[in-house]
Amino acid sequence: MDEEPLAAALRGYVIGRLLHELFKVEHGVEHVLGWSVFRRAHQARAQRCHYRRQAALES
Questions:
Q1: Does 32 fall in a domain?
Q2: Cα torsion at 54, 49, 47, 18 (round to 10°)?
Q3: Is the pLDDT of residue 4 over 80?
Q4: 0.70 exceeded by the pTM?
Q5: Which of 37, 32, 33 is nearest to 5 (CA)?
Q6: Are 36 and 18 in contact (CB under 8 A)?
Q7: Residue 5 belongs to some domain of the structure
Q8: CA-based Rg of the chain, rounded to a whole angstrom?
Q9: Which of 8, 38, 44, 46: CA 20 to 30 A from 1?
């Protein structure tokens, strides 16, 4: 399993939050897209760690 995706797939609520954030005045597009990339990468890392931990418990 060496080829793991960089980020988790976009979920419905994330798409909604992105659209909401994109059209707010307080944050720029760079901030919102940067947050999205960070969040999806963090979710993917957490998922990989979870699967790794579960596999270790089953061994």
A1: yes
A2: 160
A3: no
A4: no
A5: 37
A6: yes
A7: no
A8: 15
A9: 38
Domain that holds residue 22: 12-58
Buried b (16+ CB within 10 A) or exposed e, 38-52: ebbeeebeeeeeeee
What is the sign, positive or negative, of the torsion defined by CA atoms of 36, 38, 44, 50?
negative
Of the two residues 13 and 51, the one the predictor is more confident about is 51
Q: Please state the length of the chain.
A: 59
Where do we find the tokens 């793991």? 4
In a domain, residue 49? The reply is yes
Q: Are 44 and 4 in contact (CB under 8 A)?
A: yes
Residue 2 falls inside a structural domain: no
Distances (CA, A) of 7 to 27, 40, 45, 56, 57: 22, 5, 8, 23, 25
